[in-house]
Amino acid sequence: MNDTVHDPSALPATLPGFAPRFARDSVALAALAMLALLILAAIFAPWIAPQNPYDLAQLDLMDSKLAPGAAGADGRHFLLGTDEQGRDIFSAILYGMRTSLIAGSVSTVLALIIGLFFGLCAAWFRGWVDAIIMRVADLQLSFPSILIALVLLAALGQGLDKIIFALVAVQWAYYARTARAAGMAEREKDYLSAAIALGLKTPRIIFRHLLPNCLPPLMVVATVQIAAAISLEATLSFLGLGLPITEPSLGLLIANGYAHLLSGKYWISFFPGLTLLVLIVCINLVADRLRDLFDPRRTDTGSN
Amino acid sequence: MMKFNIRLWICVATLLANAAMAGDLRIGMSADITSMDPHAVNITPNNNIGWHVFDALVHVDADARIAPGLAQSWRAVDDTTWEFKLRRNVKFHDGSPFTADDVLFSMDRAEKLPNGQYASFVQRLTDRRAVDPYTVRVKTATPYAMVPYDLNSIFIVSKKAAANASPEDFNNGKAMIGTGPFRFTRFARGDRVELAKNPTYWGGAPAWDKVIFRIIPNDPARIAALLSGDIDAIEAIPTPDLARIRADKRFRLAQKVSWRTIFFHMDQWRDVSPFVTDRSGKPLPKNPLKDVNVRLAISKAINRQAIVERLMENAAIPASNLVSPPVFGHVAAIKPEANDPEAAKQLLARAGYPDGFALTLHAPNNRYVNDDQIAQSVAQMLTRVGISTKVETMPINVYLPKARNGDFSFSMLGWGSFSGDLALRALLATPNADKGYGAWNWSRYANPAMDKLLDQGFATVDEKKREGIAREAAAIALKDQAVIPIHHQIAVWAMKANINYVARTDEYTFAHHMK
Amino acid sequence: MPGFLLQRLAQALLVIFIMSLLVFGGVYAIGDPMAMMIPPDATQADAARMAAALGLDQPLWRQYGVFLSQALHGNLGVSFAFHVPAVTLILERLPATLELAIAATLMAIIFGIPLGLYAGLRPNGFIGRSIMAGSILGFSLPTFWVGLIFILVFSVQLGWLPASGRGETVDVFGVPLSFLTADGLQHMLMPALNLALFKLALVTRLVRAGAREALSLDYVRFARAKGLTEARVIGAHVLRNILIPVVTVIGLEFGSLVAFAVVTETIFAWPGMGKLLIDSINVLDRPVVVAYLCVTVTLFVLINLAVDLAYAALDPRVRLGGEAR
Fold it and tell me: Which of B369, B380, B388 is the best substitution to test chain A (most A C-beta atoms within 10 A)?
């Protein structure tokens, strides 16, 4: 075949000069700025938010379902309206974003690491290692996330850590299978045969040579999966299996507002939905750009 | 080409949709119908279909009071013997006559069907016999006033059609022969049930040639199906959509106070309750929920009117009782506790909790109307009087096993019962497996005086006298603040403006009562 | 080859066995199925009688033993909620779900590959960028939310499509299929699209990434330099390079489509297996959950087998069988 020998250790995107190169794409730059803004807003939520939406004592049922801009019982205005409990939607979005970002990113990173490890092991060692890992992945993929979440909820109770655990449990198998597929294809290529022939140690081959070449397809899946994880958390909330209802994430806010979509009280789920959308679009634009820059096989910089 | 095709389909479909016959009624149901066998799975959606195809000796009217059904009348011959006079000239859908044999067969089947969930309604009837083809006598071991109530739950099937029938024979229609207002046409599990008019129904032929019950448990989807004209009527309108439908001239609402009451059970049996601590999270020396003053304070802390208006969109009324106003045994003299946070704080202080305490409240999140929202609001209100309250909600399948196991301290339950004494028997009577008392008494409230009144009531055959005793028993428990009632739900149906429905307290959706 | 298949079969059986153990343990951890089954007015004695009739009064290991011995005779148990054999329930719902999943996968492939290819070939053009931006919409909003917006727009506002349910069906060899009638297709359009959105976005992005990667590979550059037509370069070289990851993901996603059509089926009242599963989990109907998962595991193993066979066909360097040779 037409394969050429790559030297993946020579990454074309070295850190010096990285920032200007990233900035050459104005859309990505704008996305990065927006993402930074959102992350800062999430981190500093307690100082920015007019209300602590997680503190029941600060909520008043008499402020329930106020439209954006309306004044509440004590004369305070609610920028983006309130939910059923009289919770300020703006504050809830700031706090909820924090929860969603943690849930989405932590679970994706953990799942990626676990999946990558097992997927590459399967691709490298083959034989019974491959068989065991892949059958466990099959088991995992066919075992519904709802059931996992339910079991965790019943056994351990509610909480962000349990949700993250459930999300990792659901996602790692995707990465494992994708990594294995990529690894299988790479393994047959000449540069790896050369590396083996040179007598390099297995871990070194896997991590220095195999891994970087398997990353691009995995990164595509991962950027999609961060969004999917946040959205899966929303779905679990929709099914009543997510986070505590008094500490809503973006997903839980959307799920709660869902019942009001038909009645015209759009703001309860629209604003959290919009925030989620912007957040995920930004994550993806930035990730796309990063991938373009770090991709070992690409030397062009994709100017704009 | 593709585009053209899509348009074509849309045209064809619009035609098809409009072509639905004028005599058809399509109803959106809020819960899954699992079986056609009227003696198998005892859940409301199944019974709802049962009432269309079959009949029972005793009916329940729109106010949840018992009324004559296939039995024209009944009386207690003595304390332990009941006699039912059957309606004459009633025919099954296959044309065969309805007689006492069918009644006895149905009771037998309900008792003996493997895994059947209706056996408890006939097990107390120790001796069942036909005096003549139109008279049935049953005996009980001890005086038991609830015989007509129990027989409301036994659907009468045709002995001829249902002899040796399995649940599958009902599902595929073979044994699905009743005396009800509709004949069975088709059951597509998880999707729909189709029925056709029984023109010779003894209660008068229904107004519809064909009725289709569509199963659409997702609330917005059910509303959307009504709004888009896919279906003609729906049950269980989600509260957020009430205002919109009320304002829409194309539709009409029918509503009535339901028999379902939402209330909280409180741990009154443990000295240290698992989810009650002081405000810093340390255990308390004793369980405050055992103190009637604390329970009263909790009741006063709750603004029921706000919950009814803000969360329930007025599809509920504040509750003081376990059963709603139309229901047998409701005590009208006891009014809902008025919201008085100051009085609540004073009561707490007097009970020895000037700084309040901390509590975790548990509730399901997919069982009752707005259950998780109600839980949050109650927590909000309790927190305001000094009882710092956390909320944990979970799906009913996780919730119920834990609640029954006594895992919670303060937990929500919804209950529908067609008499106050039956509700007390299940919810607040001292748990006693032999008598079947207190199966749902998560509070473990125990009051011998009330138990005694219940014993007495269930042995009192005279309905008037029994209702008096039931009220007396209810008053004892309510004055003890044995539970914290929140509200009675109002059941709401929505339908196209040209349809009328006589709304029912028991929440059943009857196509033969739509006109 | 036969050895390879046999080996896979043995592995599949083992996986199913482990799955049944997990589900038994899982349902046990959630709670006692009896709590969901007893009618409110039942007394303690009624509850005990019902538990005994279903064997739920036995210790868990014995319940599992009973299940196992029945399963070996081809009986996966009777549903607690429906009082019908669990397998009957699942097979009854299978066509509806498969129909939906196949329609969604087809949509994802038919639209995803050309869109992704275009975006990959013209990554910096306006359309290419728009495609990528649009694809983000596909997975950033929760399915249940998008589904309801569809219903709101296409059924309630415009009145073009039915809001929910499965349309008319035609029996083909006893299997009810709805895509053969106009009414059925209409009912299927929205749920299928709802289910397809996520996969469509994923396929588009994978194809784009694959295409970009391929374009930078030397052999493609050679091919171009040799003066092969653009169509031939793309058809023969680029497409081949992107198909492996696409096949993997489609295989994976098809399985998950079947298993996780839960949300779409719930919102569109589509009487499929996903809805059956969640309803069964909701009432702790263990026999149905166990049987369902045994069926889906089998399906997964078969799909993965098909995917591995597809690799071998697509890439002669990938050898079947476990051993590195």
Answer: B380
